[in-house]
Specification:
Layout (H helix, E strand, L loop, with lengths): L6 E6 L7 H12 L4 E6 L7 H12 L7 E5 L10 E6 L2 E6 L5 H4 L6 E4 L16 H14 L4 H4 L1 E2 L12 E2 L3 E9 L5 E6 H8 L2 E7 L2 E3 L14 E5 L4 E6 L4 H4 L7 E10 L1
Parallel strand pairs: 1-2, 1-3, 3-5
Antiparallel strand pairs: 4-5, 4-6, 6-7, 8-9, 9-10, 9-15, 10-14, 11-12, 11-15, 13-14
Helix pairs in contact: 1-4
């Protein structure tokens, strides 16, 4: 039997200046004031479903079994997109069916998915067409975290909308990837993981072409590079990252999200 632990996380693109997040928290605490609310991020770029998916994927595994994750990046709010909740790896996830859970699942199937079509569990039977976060997702998440069973929260469904992250392109000479996320430090995170990189590198030296720069330095840590020096390293999610020690690689190297990153392997061995 699935048991929740009272922890409920929030990931949104709402920011905090307009009170939307506070309204959702107010609804949830009104249902159960003992919930442990954890803010993951409210700074996801507006309407950027894939960025929300990236953030959610990177943090979910750090939480214990029984956690409920509420994620609302919902440019289709009020349309015919479904409101859903799912169980995956002993955690529950609540949000819009728009691909927000794609990176988390990484091609696997959720253990259980329901459409949240039971108005008795909503904030009210009259729902705002622009704020399902407050009126549907928040109350359902709070009730799930308080012991409501997933099967009671909605009607089972078998299909979910999926978004696909572009995979790097490789040949004998190198790899072309893309910057998929830029964090608040200006580190540029790519879609190239260490297994893909090392299987093509085979011990060879390399050059990394990104933005306005050619980077030949690779590091284990940020401080391996001199202050202001650009380097590449594999981050805590095992993705190749372009960084500048004590600086912003995005600003200093003119790299933006979606920019190509080209790795050229040399004949020399490391």
């Amino acid at each position: 039997m699935f048991a929740t632990n009272g922890i409920l996380t929030l990931t949104t693109d709402f920011g905090t200046q307009d009170g939307y997040v506070a309204a959702m928290k107010g609804v949830m605490l009104g249902i159960n004031p003992d919930l442990k609310l954890v803010d993951v991020s409210h700074d996801v770029a507006p309407h950027d479903i894939m960025e929300g998916a990236f953030v959610l994927r990177n943090v979910a595994e750090a939480f214990p079994n029984g956690t409920v994750h509420l994620a609302v990046v919902d440019p289709g709010v009020g349309s015919n997109r479904k409101a859903i909740a799912m169980k995956y790896r002993n955690q529950l996830f609540v949000g819009p069916d728009n691909g927000l859970f794609s990176l988390l699942l990484t091609g696997n199937a959720a253990e259980q998915v329901v459409e949240l079509d039971q108005p008795r569990f909503w904030r009210d039977t009259k729902v705002s067409s622009t704020f399902h976060g407050r009126d549907i997702f928040a109350p359902i998440a709070a009730r799930l975290a308080s012991g409501l069973s997933l099967s009671s929260a909605g009607t089972p469904i078998t299909e979910m909308k999926s978004l696909h992250w572009a995979l790097p392109i490789s040949d004998e000479q190198g790899i072309q990837g893309w910057v998929v996320h830029i964090d608040r430090f200006g580190n540029c995170i790519t879609n190239i993981d260490s297994n893909h990189f090392e299987s093509h590198q085979r011990g060879r030296l390399f050059k990394c072409y990104a933005g306005s720069s050619i980077i030949t330095s690779n590091s284990e840590t940020y401080s391996d590079a001199e202050p202001g020096e650009a380097t590449v390293l594999f981050n805590s999610q095992d993705n190749l990252e372009i960084a500048i020690h004590k600086g912003s690689a995005s600003s200093m190297l003119d790299i933006r999200k979606g920019a190509p990153v080209n790795i050229l392997f040399m004949d020399e061995k490391t």
